[in-house]
Amino acid sequence: MNRILVTGAGGQIGSWLVPRLRELYGEANVLATDVRHLGPDFTEAGPFQVLDATQPKAVGQAVMRHDADTVYHLAAILSAIGEKDPRLAWHVNMASLEAVLEVARDQGCAVFTPSSIGVFGPDTPKNPTPQDTVMRPTTMYGITKVAGELLCDYYHTRFGVDTRGVRFPGLISYGAPPGGGTTDWAVEIFYEAVARGSYTCFLEADAQLDMMYMPDAVDALVGIMEADASKLVHRNAFNVAGLQITPEGLAAEIAKHRPEFTIDYDV
Ligand code: NAD
Question: Are strands 238-239 and 166-168 parallel, antiparallel or unpaired?
Answer without folding.
Answer: parallel
